[in-house]
Amino acid sequence: QLQLVESGGGLVQPGGSLRLSCAASGFILDYYAIGWFRQAPGKEREGVSCISSSNGSTYYADSVKGRFTISRDNAKNTVYLQMNSLKPEDTAVYYCRACSETLYSDYDDDYWGQGTQVTVSS
Hints:
By secondary structure, this protein is mainly beta. The chain is built from no helices and 10 strands. The protein starts with a strand and ends with a strand.
């Protein structure tokens, strides 16, 4: 069973931090560019960040640059998203999956998982 499982979401106050984890099973994460996407109710899905498989190059949406950091630990088969200085507009369900450096988000396939809820509120 090929699977990516997101975790680490929760409720945090504005200005706070969370670290999301994306753990792979059934495949080796090393061979894929993996990224984070998010979707809030009533809003279109957005590509947040992507990290390459080859050289670790990272890409970010303008809305999160300087606040979020994507990283990968291939030995643990896991990709992380460190989120700092969180804002209410970051509230969304966050998903991980294969990505491209363009942060294309309109994939119409069966590879979207359950995601993890991030809520930023006072």
